[in-house]
Description:
Helix content is 1%, strand content 42%. With 428 residues, it is mainly beta. Strand 6 (81-86) and strand 7 (91-95) form a beta hairpin. It is globular and about 60 Å long. This is RCC1-like domain-containing protein. RCC repeats lie at residues 38-88, 89-141, 142-193, 261-312, 313-365, 366-419. Keywords: Guanine-nucleotide releasing factor, Repeat.
Amino acid sequence: xxxxxxxxxxxxxxxxxxxxxxxxxxxxxxxxxxxxxxxxxxxxxxxxxxxxxxxxxxxxxxxxxxxxxxxxxxxxxxxxxxxxxxxxxxxxxxxxxxxxxxxxxxxxxxxxxxxxxxxxxxxxxxxxxxxxxxxxxxxxxxxxxxxxxxxxxxxxxxxxxxxxxxxxxxxxxxxxxxxxxxxxxxxxxxxxxxxxxxxxxxxxxxxxxxxxxxxxxxxxxxxxxxxxxxxxxxxxxxxxxxxxxxxxxxxxxxxxxxxxxxxxxxxxxxxxxxxxxxxxxxxxxxxxxxxxxxxxxxxxxxxxxxxxxxxxxxxxxxxxxxxxxxxxxxxxxxxxxxxxxxxxxxxxxxxxxxxxxxxxxxxxxxxxxxxxxxxxxxxxxxxxxxxxxxxxxxxxxxxxxxxxxxxxxxxxxxxxxxxxxxxxxxxx
Length: 428
């Protein structure tokens, strides 16, 4: 990732203190981390088309090649769908479209959900994200378009107060966005001015701008429109904070303060997965002393665990142990604080990802390691056994390919890889 560039206005009043929150401009963030052209491989459940292998392939236990007529530079696994970003800035989707997560009409078109199709966007996309039932794309001009729906404990919330959006909708306006992040049912937006906006489901505190009492859509004075309209997170104005990175976990949000390693967190914390002590949801962004100890390159979370990658290529984990998702071995306990993953300590990791109860790491040598729940073949090991330690993923399709990045959803995993041959489109 290239170095972030930003500038500040150093205007000072006579007594030497800032007159107000200083002007801040986040000029550039390299998105995605890897912009090398690759091919797409998939593993896991494909019963609703999320593997993109056609209607006859409902499950894979090892990575299989998706044949696309496009050169792909990024991939993202949603709950039951997949999103791909092409070299030309186009967005391709496949998988479940019951709630509009594909961003294109599939009704009455045979096998349309099982094969990749293009989303019609009004510009070039430079980043993609996906949640359980929504997807989004950041365009090169700073606009964000999303489609699908958010969900809460009452069911579908809609993407907007009008309901589900089956076609791309400009979800945040009048600001220039530099980065987007999707949780299971919420989104976070990092703006050019260093602010963070959120929208979607607020029930676990993941929006960072509602109280617990007002987090239910049926609560008095809490109309649905307030949750679905992007607004800034609630940080004390006296802190005068700007942010230069944001990550979304399934039910939480991680916000990095500019020029520092400080991380403010909010959301579900029932297994310490956002790095705070009390096992309760945090509805207000709170400084995590544990997460603030490190300089993070990436933070990713599943349902109850978090996997992080620091600037030196080391992997840390925190949260729930079941199914081996922490990678700390059979006899490990829940990780109450961040723990270094020693089994990968001799590797330089360049990319990490989490599914609901799975974890993955990609090394600079192009190796893919996975651990956690293997029930539907989403680990790609060839079996449905859980893996309690990082396990090298091997397959025929990976023999002559270097893995660049990985993304895992509810029951499937998507891999971007490049080989020594010229088969970048998966035509063979």
